[in-house]
Specification:
Layout: H1 3-20, H2 33-44, H3 52-57, E1 60-62, E2 69-80, E3 86-96, E4 100-102, H4 106-115, E5 118-119, H5 121-136, E6 140-149, H6 150-153, E7 164-169, H7 176-187
Parallel strand pairs: 2-5
Antiparallel strand pairs: 1-4, 2-3, 3-6, 6-7
Helix pairs in contact: 1-2, 4-5
Length: about 190
């Protein structure tokens, strides 16, 4: 099936769903909505077609640096797999190199690739950590994600100020002192 055929098939289902909720999919404001939704879903789930490990491997460099490397405040947008509603926030990622460093722009790319799949925040956190650990083999990796979930804010309990924080870590970050250093550095405002 070509991409155009796939989009047309998705759009036909969106059009049907508009009718199921009581809308008139033929009214002027909704005529192009099914295709817009199909294209948006394709964009928001493009991470399935990308390999985050290959992204990291494309920019690995030998370097004798063994201190913490942090990329913080990485914007992320994903879709909750339970309701297909967005969740969004920030990821903070650290690793301690072991012979190899990676181009720093590749860390946000890894976050984005995993976020552009249907997700739960807990799995997203672990997938980012595992990918970096398994690809770079660093002395340790730590990932913290802070996010707001529209499935909790717009429906269900409707708690608009609630945020969710998840973390996962390996290696050197199992030491409390190392974790505390990371948490202190991500909470400190940039000056």
């Amino acid at each position: 099936m070509t991409n155009e055929e796939l989009l047309a098939e998705m759009a036909s289902h969106v059009k049907a769903n508009l009718g199921y909720i009581g809308e008139d999919p033929e009214r002027e404001g909704l005529l192009k909505t099914p295709m817009r939704v199909a294209k948006a879903l394709q964009f928001l789930t493009q991470g399935y077609d990308q390999d985050p490990a290959e992204v990291l491997k494309s920019a690995m460099f030998r370097e004798d640096y063994r201190q913490m490397v942090i990329v913080r405040d990485i914007d992320l947008y994903s879709l909750c797999e339970h309701h297909l509603l967005p969740f969004f926030g920030k990821a903070h990622v650290a690793y301690i190199p072991n012979k190899y460093i990676v181009g720093i722009s590749k860390i946000p790319r890894v976050v984005e690739i995993f976020a552009r799949r249907l997700q739960v925040q807990e799995r997203l956190t672990t997938q980012i950590k595992d990918c970096i650990q398994n690809t770079l083999n660093p002395l340790g990796v730590m990932v913290v994600i802070e996010a707001s979930h529209l499935c909790m804010q717009m429906r269900g309990v409707q708690k608009i100020n609630a945020t969710t924080t998840t973390s996962d870590f390996t290696g050197a970050f199992t030491e409390i002192k190392t974790r505390q250093e990371f948490l202190k550095l991500i909470s400190k405002p940039l000056e």
